[in-house]
């Protein structure tokens, strides 16, 4: 009572304490300040529940308590806040239902309850708020269906309901809707049914996000009626049917994301008319067939193209007029594409990710890949790419030296046939992963590999590499995976390998290695998998290996190792599999 009496005579109209470190609770008497219009205490460390007195203040216009640690339920009793315009309670720990009495605050223009733990249904009474412009309820635990009358308000500009447990169909009220809605986001729910056929009534819509739901059926054929749409996200739904050609009529479209749907048929040429498009993604639809329309590669604004994991065929467009000066990411992997890697790709100077793996591409790898100065991920594996005729070395590595941001390089499972050049050691210091599995590579492993000190994984298994394992591998202190199996490597294992303190997996099986297994292997405390089988190792097995408590897999079969298995092998508590040696 004293708190109430102390504040009732305070004449402050605006209380702005945002962006501080106030803690404890909000004084109950705050709601009894007779002239209070604005209370803004967002971004503090306030806790406990919201005083019910705040919902009884007849003059308050703004209640902003976001980004605190407030808990408990909102006041369920009648609200007497006839002047309230803004209610911002986002990013707290509020629980319970959204009170139906929120409908009494008839002048509300902005409701933000996002980032809490509210449950129950969206109250129908919100539809009565004739001045409401923004409704943000995302990231709660709301259930039930979305009231169709919510879309009837001509004042609403933005609705955000994502990351809840809402279900039922997405329905718009029948009849004429006078809507100014610009943003509608309800992704990551359990919404079912089809995209409503009368969605064209939302004529002002700029963003429609309904990804990660259970929406079925086709995209409406007349979807092009949303002539102001800029962002369209419908991925991760079992949506079927073909891609509507009317999408090409939405000249304002910038982001089109239809990933992980069940769409079929061909990619319509009309998409090439979307001159403002920045991201285009139809990845992982599986049933998309035919060729990629050449017109798409003439959209100069494109930054991301993703058609991976489909059944697309034919050639990647190769015309010289293609210009993709803004392209940053190109994903065409896991299709049935044929022909050569088009040279225009090397002119996309902003390209950061190029994924062409798992196709039927032929010809050589362009020698001017070094033009891609910003490339970080280059995946060309599982194709039919070859080396240049009459060339001994794999010269495309010489060009890659210019790619100083390269992190991942995969060119395996393709019949390259050639020798690794010394220039491989001059690749970017940022490179973390090189995979050249089953690429018909022969010759020696260049000692320059020791220069790539940022490497985490190098995989050159299943080739025809000969000679010794370079001791320079010991310079790769970050290395976690060293895969050299199924080659023709000879000589001893260099003790420098024991310097790889982060090594988790070492595969040397099916080679012609000989001599002793280094005793210092026991120092590799992170090692979990060690494969040495099918070589020519001799003498006794190092006792230090039996003490490696973290080792999960040990394979040394088909060698000439002598001695007995020690009685304290039980110390290898983690081991899953030991292959006997003979």
Automatic annotation (TrEMBL):
Recorded GO CC terms: membrane
Gene3D superfamilies: Ribonuclease Inhibitor
Name of the protein: Disease resistance R13L4/SHOC-2-like LRR domain-containing protein
Membrane topology: Single-pass membrane protein
All copies of domain Disease resistance R13L4/SHOC-2-like LRR, residue ranges: 179-282
A biological process term (GO) from this entry: defense response
Alphabetically ordered keywords of this record: Glycoprotein, Leucine-rich repeat, Membrane, Repeat, Signal, Transmembrane, Transmembrane helix
Keyword Transmembrane part of the UniProt annotation: yes
SMART domains from the UniProt entry: LRR_SD22, LRR_TYP
Subcellular localization(s) per the UniProt record: Membrane
InterPro entries: Leu-rich_rpt, Leu-rich_rpt_typical-subtyp, LRR_dom_sf, LRR_R13L4/SHOC2-like
Pfam families (UniProt xref): LRR_1 (PF00560), LRR_14 (PF23598), LRR_8 (PF13855)
TM spans (from-to): none
């Amino acid at each position: 009572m004293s708190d109430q009496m102390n504040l009732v005579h305070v004449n402050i109209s605006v209380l702005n304490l945002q962006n501080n470190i106030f803690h404890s609770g909000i004084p109950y008497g705050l709601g009894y300040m007779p002239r209070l219009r604005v209370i803004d205490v967002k971004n503090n460390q306030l806790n406990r529940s919201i005083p019910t007195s705040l919902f009884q203040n007849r003059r308050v216009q703004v209640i902003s308590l976001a980004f605190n640690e407030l808990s408990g339920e909102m006041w369920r009793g009648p609200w007497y806040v006839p002047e309230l315009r803004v209610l911002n309670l986002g990013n707290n720990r509020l629980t319970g239902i959204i009170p139906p009495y929120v409908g009494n605050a008839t002048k509300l223009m902005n409701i933000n309850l996002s980032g809490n733990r509210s449950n129950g249904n969206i109250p129908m009474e919100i539809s009565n708020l004739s001045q409401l412009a923004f409704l943000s309820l995302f990231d709660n635990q709301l259930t039930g269906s979305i009231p169709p009358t919510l879309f009837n308000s001509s004042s609403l500009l933005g609705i955000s309901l994502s990351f809840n447990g809402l279900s039922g169909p997405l329905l718009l009220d029948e009849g004429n809707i006078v809507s100014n809605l610009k943003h509608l986001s309800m992704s990551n729910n359990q919404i079912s049914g089809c995209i409503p056929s009368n969605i064209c009534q939302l004529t002002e819509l700029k963003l429609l996000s309904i990804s990660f739901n259970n929406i079925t059926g086709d995209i409406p054929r007349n979807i092009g009626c949303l002539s102001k749409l800029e962002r369209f996200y419908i991925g991760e739904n079992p949506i079927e049917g073909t891609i509507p050609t009317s999408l090409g009529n939405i000249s304002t479209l910038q982001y089109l994301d239809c990933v992980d749907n069940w769409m079929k048929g061909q990619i319509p040429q009309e998409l090439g008319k979307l001159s403002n498009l920045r991201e285009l993604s139809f990845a992982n639809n599986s049933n998309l067939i035919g060729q990629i329309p050449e017109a798409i590669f003439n959209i100069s604004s494109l930054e991301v193209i993703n058609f991976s994991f489909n059944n697309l065929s034919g050639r990647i467009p190769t015309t010289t007029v293609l210009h993709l000066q803004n392209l940053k990411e190109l994903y065409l992997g896991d299709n049935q594409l044929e022909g050569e890697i088009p040279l225009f790709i090397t002119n996309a100077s902003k390209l950061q990710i190029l994924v062409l793996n798992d196709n039927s591409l032929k010809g050589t790898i362009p020698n001017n890949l070094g033009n891609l100065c910003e490339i970080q991920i280059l995946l060309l594996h599982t194709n039919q790419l070859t080396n240049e005729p009459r060339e001994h070395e794999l010269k495309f590595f010489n060009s890659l030296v210019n790619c100083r941001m390269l992190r991942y390089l995969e060119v395996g499972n393709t019949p390259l046939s050639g020798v690794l050049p010394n220039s491989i050691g001059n690749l970017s210091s940022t490179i973390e992963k090189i995979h050249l599995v089953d690429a018909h590579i022969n010759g020696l492993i260049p000692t320059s590999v020791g220069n790539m000190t940022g490497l985490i994984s190098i995989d050159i298994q299943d080739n025809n590499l000969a000679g010794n394992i370079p001791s320079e591998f010991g310079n790769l202190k970050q290395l976690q995976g060293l895969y050299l199996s199924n080659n023709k490597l000879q000589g001893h294992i260099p003790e420098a390998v024991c310097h790889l303190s982060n090594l988790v997996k070492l595969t040397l099986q099916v080679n012609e290695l000989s001599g002793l297994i280094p005793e210092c292997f026991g120092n590799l405390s992170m090692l979990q998998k060690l494969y040495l089988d099918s070589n020519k190792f001799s003498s006794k097995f190092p006792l230090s290996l039996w003490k490696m408590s973290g080792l999960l897999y040990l394979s040394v079969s088909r060698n000439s190792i002598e001695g007995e298995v020690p009685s304290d092998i039980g110390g290898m508590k983690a081991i899953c599999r030991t292959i006997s040696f003979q």
